[in-house]
Amino acid sequence: MRAVELTLERRDGVDPYAVLESGDILTIPKSFFEDTPGDRDFLLQVRPSRGQFHKNVAYRPGEDRVSGLGEMEPQTAARVRSVLRNYSRNVIEFVGELLPRYRAGWHLDYASLRPVEEAGRELPLTKRNDLLHTDAFPTRPTKGGLILRFFTNVHPAKPRVWVTSDPFAIAAERYASDAGLDRFARGSMYHVRQALAAAGILPKGRSRYDEFMLAFHDYLKKNDEYQQNCPKYRFAFSPGTSWMVFTDMVPHSVESGQLALEQTFIVAAQSLANPKQAPIAILEQLAGAPLG
Ligand code: SIN
Ligand code: FE
Q1: What is the pLDDT of residues 130-140, one digit of tens each?
Q2: Which atom of ligand 1 is closest in space to residue 114's alpha carbon?
Q3: Ligand 1, closest atom to CA 247?
Q4: How many beta carbons lie within 10 A of that of residue 220, not counting itself?
Q5: 95 within domain boundaries
């Protein structure tokens, strides 16, 4: 896999859909962050609230609301919200113009501020960012939609270093069965979880696909053999650059870096230039059963 740069002056040589859907990373040499004096120093000191619910500070563009901030003065919270609002708007506008095919059926998910140094960060195993994984959201089912994420390294000096591996088609072919795909596609586990959802014990509205993707996220993080032996590709994103990737399609981990901004889009599988590359299509093919 590779990172393909989209230069802002000449876009003609690059097909962004082909890059993203084949599991590569699209980099953009621009930050989309409106830096008013002192903003970076200010953001470097922001900390997500304690407790396992908030790994980052989140911003919901639809509601213009911030969550995951610890105790702080209202003016401080308003400043964080204003930075995230501006970034989110700039990115949504840029990505919408670049990828109209996706915009037609996308759902805007959260933006986030990631102010904590990733190297040596202590988190419970399934929340660790330094272990390779494909993304899945415990509380926001996509029902087959893809997770497209746009990141910017806004740290004044340090790169943000990622390690990635071969895309979903390869990882799923090798590991989906061991991770229990058949049980999710056909079996009892899904019905048990449906019953728990109906009783209000588990969140409602999750498809078999969502259940499997969440299990696969944990499976990869817990699998030492995969973590050690899978092919690895390392990328150091310099300060001031942005990158975009389907994070449910590309196994990724963060080795180091501090201060990133990010915006997530949920892209309908049917919106892809090649819908066969969507994880749901790959899994349905492997399972021989619908998962939606
Ligand atoms: C992740 O999605 O695993 C984290 C990526 C990052 O914060 O750079
Ligand atoms: Fe991730």
Answers
A1: 999 999 998 89
A2: 7
A3: 2
A4: 21
A5: yes
Identify the residue whose C-alpha is closest to ligand 1 atom 8. Answer: 254
Q: What is the CATH number of the domain that holds 167?
A: 2.60.120
CB 245 within 8 A of CB 263: no
Average pLDDT, the chain: 92
pTM, rounded to two decimals: 0.94
3-state secondary structure of 291: coil
Q: How many domains does the chain have?
A: 1
Whether residue 96 is contained in a domain is answered as yes
Q: State mean pLDDT over 145-174.
A: 97
Q: Measuring from atom 3 of ligand 1, which residue has the nearest CA?
A: 129
C-alpha–C-alpha distance, residues 271 and 292, integer Å: 16
What lines the ligand 1 site, CB under 6 Å?
A: 114, 129, 135, 151, 160, 247, 252, 254, 260
- Cβ-count burial of 64 within 10 angstroms (0-12 exposed, 13-18 middle, 19+ buried)? exposed
- pLDDT higher than threshold 80 for residue 42: yes
* 108 or 69, greater pLDDT: 108
Going by alpha carbons, the residue nearest to atom 6 of ligand 1 is 254
Distance 252 CA to ligand 1 centre (A): 8
